[in-house]
Amino acid sequence: MSTEERNLLDRYKSLLEQKLGWGSSSGWNNQEFEDLSDKIFDATKTKLSVSTLKRISGKIKYEGSFNKSTLNALAQYIGFENWNSFAYSGFQRDSVTIAESSPVIQAAGVNRAKSALKLKIVFTSVIIGLVILFLIYKNYSYNLSTETPASVKFVSRKITDNLPNSVVFNYDVSKIDADSFFIQQNWDPQRRQKISPKNHTLTSIYYYPGHFNARLIANEKVLKKSRVFIKTKGWKGIIEQEPVPIYLSNEEIKKTGAIGISKETLKEKTGLNVFNSVNTWFLNVRSFNGLNADNFQFEGTLRNTSAVNVSLCRRIYIFILFNGGAFTIPLADRGCISSLYLTTGQRTIDGKENDLSKFGCDFKEDQKVECRVQNKVMTIVLNGKRIFQESVAENLAELVGIKISFEGTGEIKNVRLGAPGKFPVLNDQFN
C-alpha cells in the first residue's frame, strides 16, 4: 500500500468516526465492526467483512491494496458517489490542491493563492454546515445513547429441530426512547419485522438452515444480537424460491451412488423448462465436533448435470459455513467465469475484476474439489491442480455447515470434512 493510499484511508477513517459518533476506531471491539458491516450493507447493498473493516481502520496491520468495489462501498456510505470522487473531493493530493488543479481556475488566470484561500473558506464553511446538519439529524433520528442500556433484553428460542423452524424472540425495549423498533432475522435488512415497544414477544419463521445473528434494532441502531442456529438432520435438498422455498424429500434427492436433483424433478417442482438462475441447495448444517474454520480440509466430488440449453453457465457454489461467515468456492462453465465470486472468509474476490478462469470447468466429467485451511493459508485444489492460495490472517470460528448450490441440476458423489490429515468428522459416500 502506498503512502498516498494510507493517507486517504486515514482521512476516510476520520470522516467515518465523525459520522458514527462511536469514538476512535482504535477502541472499537468486534461488535462495533459487525454493526458497521451491517450499516454499510444497508446503505450500499455491498457486504464488507469484519476483517476487511479492521484492515481499513488499521486495527489489523495490512500492507496490500483494497479492491475497487470495497473502496466504492466505503465512499458511498459517507455520501460520495465512489472512491475517486472521495479522493478528489477537496483533500490535498500529492501536494496539489483542488484550487491548483482546476482547469477553470487556471483558464481564468486568477491568483492561485487568493483562489485557494477563498476555496478553503468555502470548503470550511461547507464542512461546518454538514457537521451541524449531521448532529441535528443524529439527534432527531436516533435519540439513543451509544451504549445499550442494561434494561434492554433480547433472547431467542427455537420451537423444533426440523425445517421450517419458528423462533420465539423475547425482548424488552420499554426504557428506550426511539421512533421505531425492529427485529431483523439475519444480515439481510429485508428480513426485518416492526415490533411494538409495549409488547415483549415476536415469532419468526426460518425456512433455511444456518447460523444467524438476529438483531434487535431501534431506529437504525443495533441494540443487541441473539444467535440462532437452525440445523438439518443430515443432508437437506432445497430449491431456492421467494418468499417460501421448495423442500425436496429424501427420496427425491437420492440417486445411485449420489445425491442430487434430476431435470424431471426440477421441472415438476418449478414448472420451468429453463433453469438459468434457478438454484438447488444441498445442505448439511450442524456442529462438527468443534472443528474450526482455521484448521480443516474439505473434499467433494460433484458435477452440474444441466445441459447448456437449459442452464447456460451451470454454476456451482460450495459454501463452507462457519460462525460469522463462509468460504465460498465457485465453479462454472468456462465461458461464464466473469460471473463468479470467491470468498476467503475475510474478503470477496469478484470475477469481473479478477481472473477466475481456473475455476472454469468441463462438466462432462466429475469435478474433484479440495479446500484446506492450515497454518493460516487457504488452498483450493481442482482435479488435482492447485488453483488458488491465500493467507488467512485471523483465527476463524467453529464450522457449522456445508452448502452446495447448483444452478439447475446436479449431483454430489461424496463429501469429506475433517482436520487436515486426520480421520474425517464427515465422510459421506452416498452409496
Can you describe this structure?
The chain is built from 10 helices and 24 strands. α2 packs across α4. The strands form 4 sheets. Strands 8, 9, 12, 14, 15, 16, 17, 18 and 22 form a 9-stranded mixed beta sheet that branches. Strands 10, 11, 13, 19, 20, 21, 23 and 24 form an 8-stranded antiparallel beta sheet that branches. It has a 4-stranded antiparallel beta sheet with strand order 4-3-6-7, with no helix packed on it. It is of the alpha+beta class. A hairpin with a 3-residue loop joins β16 and β17. The longest helix has 30 residues. It is 25% helix and 33% strand. The chain is globular.
Average of the residue pLDDT scores: 84
SS field, number of helical segments? 10
Strand content: 25-35%
Bin the helical content. Answer: 25-40%
- Strand count, sense and closure of the main sheet? 9 strands, mixed
Class by helix and strand content?
alpha+beta
Compute the CA-based radius of gyration.
Answer: 25 Å
Considering the chains and any ligands shown, give keywords for the structure.
431 residues, eight-stranded antiparallel sheet, 10 helices, 25% helix
Fold topology:
Layout: H1 3-20, H2 30-44, H3 50-57, H4 68-77, H5 83-87, H6 98-101, H7 103-108, H8 112-141, E1 153-158, E2 165-172, E3 181-184, E4 192-195, E5 201-206, E6 210-218, E7 221-230, E8 236-239, E9 246-248, H9 250-253, E10 254-255, E11 258-261, H10 263-270, E12 279-285, E13 296-304, E14 316-322, E15 325-333, E16 341-344, E17 348-350, E18 360-361, E19 367-374, E20 377-382, E21 385-391, E22 399-407, E23 410-418, E24 426-428
Parallel strand pairs: 15-18
Antiparallel strand pairs: 1-2, 2-5, 3-4, 3-6, 6-7, 8-9, 8-12, 10-11, 11-23, 12-22, 13-19, 13-23, 14-15, 14-22, 15-16, 16-17, 19-20, 20-21, 23-24
